């Protein structure tokens, strides 16, 4: 039996937690896989931010857009309808022009994955 003592690590601040998580993710995945993960996270965060803007800054808008479901849909019209229906169900206050611009940009973003 070893006398080695294992210690739990508790980062002190948010920056330290991010660095620790980044280090762990880097160890777990290769560079290419990490690039894809970061790209996807960037798009997911972009979608969340844009939806918040459509709801006049209200982060508690009840809209959860599942990127996996979006990517599994075969056609651009199906993807647009999926997101548009989510926005309508949550009574999105944005104008149709703003929603259309968001949907166009979202499709462009998804096409980069």
Automatic annotation (TrEMBL):
- Organism of origin is Trichostrongylus colubriformis
Q: Where are the transmembrane segments?
A: none
Q: Which UniProt keywords apply?
A: Phosphoprotein, Protein phosphatase inhibitor
Keyword Signal applies: no
Entry GO terms, CC: cytoplasm
SUPFAM superfamilies, from UniProt?
Answer: Myosin phosphatase inhibitor 17kDa protein, CPI-17 (SSF81790)
What's a single GO MF annotation on this record? Answer: protein serine/threonine phosphatase inhibitor activity
Q: Which InterPro entries match?
A: CPI-17, CPI-17_sf
Under Pfam families, the record lists: PP1_inhibitor
Ranges for the region named Disordered are: 1-21
- Entry protein name: Uncharacterized protein
Indicate whether Phosphoprotein appears among the record's keywords: yes
Q: Which family does it belong to?
A: Belongs to the PP1 inhibitor family.
């Amino acid at each position: 039996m070893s006398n080695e003592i294992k210690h739990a690590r508790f980062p002190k601040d948010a920056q330290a937690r991010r660095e620790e998580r980044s280090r762990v993710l880097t160890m777990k995945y290769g560079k290419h896989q990490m690039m894809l993960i970061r790209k996807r996270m960037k798009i997911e965060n972009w979608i969340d931010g844009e939806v918040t803007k459509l709801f006049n800054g209200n982060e508690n808008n009840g809209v959860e857009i599942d990127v996996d479901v979006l990517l599994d849909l075969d056609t651009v019209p199906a993807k647009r309808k999926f997101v548009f229906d989510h926005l309508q169900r949550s009574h999105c206050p944005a104008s149709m022009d703003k929603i259309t611009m968001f949907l166009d940009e979202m499709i462009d973003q998804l096409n980069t994955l």
